[in-house]
Every structure is written in C-alpha cells, then in structure tokens.
Amino acid sequence: MRVVSWNIHWGCGKDSRIRIHAIIDVLRKLNPDIICLQEVAANHPELEGNASANQFRQLAGAFGGYQPVLEPTSEIYQNNMPRQFGNLLLSKYRITQVHRHSLPWPPDPANPGMPRGLIEAVVEAPGGKLRVLTTHLEYYSQVQRMAQVRHIKYLHWEACERARLYQPNSGLDAPFQLGFRPGSAIYCGDFNFTPDSAEHAEMLATDDSIALPLVDAWAHTHPDTARAPTAGLHGFKWPDRPDCYDYFFVTEDLVPRLNEVTVQSETAASDHQPIVIDLT
C-alpha cells in the first residue's frame, strides 16, 4: 500500500508558471494507491500564475481509476462564482465513508489566517479497513495551528472511542448505517510545524484514553537519519532554509506494517516535495 501526500502550491513552480501536468506526471510515476493533495485551487486568477482553472476537476479527471474526495476549505464568492482552495484525496481503494472536518479558526489579532479542514476517508485497504486523513494547517498563527492540532487529537480520540462502542447495525434507519469506522489511521499533509515544535510534540502526546497512540512514521523508519526537508529546495522564495513541514503520522497498530517513508526531492513542480509512505 502506497500513499503520497503533497502540497502542490496550486501547481505553481519557481518560475511563477502553473503546470498541473507536471504535478500529474510526478504522481503517475510514483504510482500511489492513495493521493492526498493540499493547496488545490479553482477560480483563483489572483494567485501567482493565475490559478483560474478548476484544479479539483483537472486532477480528478487525470486519475479516472481513483475515487475523488474534494474539500475546498476556503470558498469565497465573486460575481456569483466560487473561488475555492483546499484539499483533495484520491483513492484506488473502495471508500466506505467520508467525513469532512472543519478545524478551529480562533481569532488571532496578529494573524488573520484562513479556514482549514481535514478530509477523513475510510478505505478498504488490503490489510483491512483504515482511515486516511489529510490536512493543511495554519502557517502564520501558532495560536490557530495549536488549536487545530488539539482538535485533530480530539477527533482521533472520538474515532477510536466510536470504534470501540459502535458496530454496524442494519436495523437502524439508512442515514445511521455508516458501517465500521476503525481507529487505525494514517494522518498526512502539510502541518506547517517543524519536528522540534510544541505542535509536533502535541501530535504524539499520549494520555490514559482509549485512543491509539500516534507515531511519526519518518522518525520510526529513520531513527538514525537526519530529517529530510520537505520544503525550501530548488530556490523557491519560501522558506528561508530547507526544513520539514510535511508528515505521516500513523496509529501504533500500523507500525509493524511500515516499510519506508521517503521524500521525493527531485521535482520542482511545487514549493513542497511529495512525501511517500509504503506499508505492507
């Protein structure tokens, strides 16, 4: 099982030109079973490079064998047309449930920020059902970012507790027949924090609840290797220096299935690099 997570920067390269076909080419070469993308845009001509096309539609159409889950976390109307920006998940595996979670956006007078969200898809993977979740957290406001991390941890506890308490019940009315939603999960995306941050520590913090502990998949598979940067390569204006902002966090029960986590550093199609996780 292979999952790719990538903040595609609406396909805008360092020459300020948008090339969605370059994003598609990289993804096809990686040949993932599940694709998790952030910073997908539609009808945003004011963004660098003129992101006026509907990239959600372009990317979903390019991967016709995958089931798409769209989550525009920002939807602003201009001339009665929605300008959308957010996340996209594409899965080869059958999806049995989808949950779109809005993340906290507490007012921060120093940084307005933007709305953020989390896609959750329950997939029938070869090793059994699991949840795959992708997000893009706030960059500028540490107050908002920490609130978002804590809400993700709450949602994780909620899912694990519901997996313990509730089983599928065909006797319920149709909207209540959601089927099994497991605690086992892969969380990925652009978290906009560094490995030495308080937010990273919060993601991994454990308590005495039923929630399955989360593990930083890179740290587990590369215990003696320096963290590979996921942004700051190829001469982009941001960030000031290469660092890691993109992660895979997996539940502890999936650790025995972890094979490898890699950062694809070659492509310059975005200001972030694709990250890849392989599980048995």
Automatic annotation (TrEMBL):
Alphabetical UniProt keywords: Endonuclease, Hydrolase, Nuclease
A Pfam cross-reference name: Exo_endo_phos
Top-rank lineage group of the source organism: Bacteria
GO molecular function: endonuclease activity
InterPro entries: Endo/exonu/phosph_ase_sf (IPR036691), Endo/exonuclease/phosphatase (IPR005135), GPI-anchor_lipid_remodeler (IPR051916)
UniProt KW Hydrolase keyword: yes
Residue stretches making up the Endonuclease/exonuclease/phosphatase domain: 4-272
Stored Gene3D superfamilies: Endonuclease/exonuclease/phosphatase (3.60.10.10)
UniProt keyword annotation of Hydrolase present: yes
Protein's UniProt name: Endonuclease/exonuclease/phosphatase family protein
Origin species: Massilia agrisoli
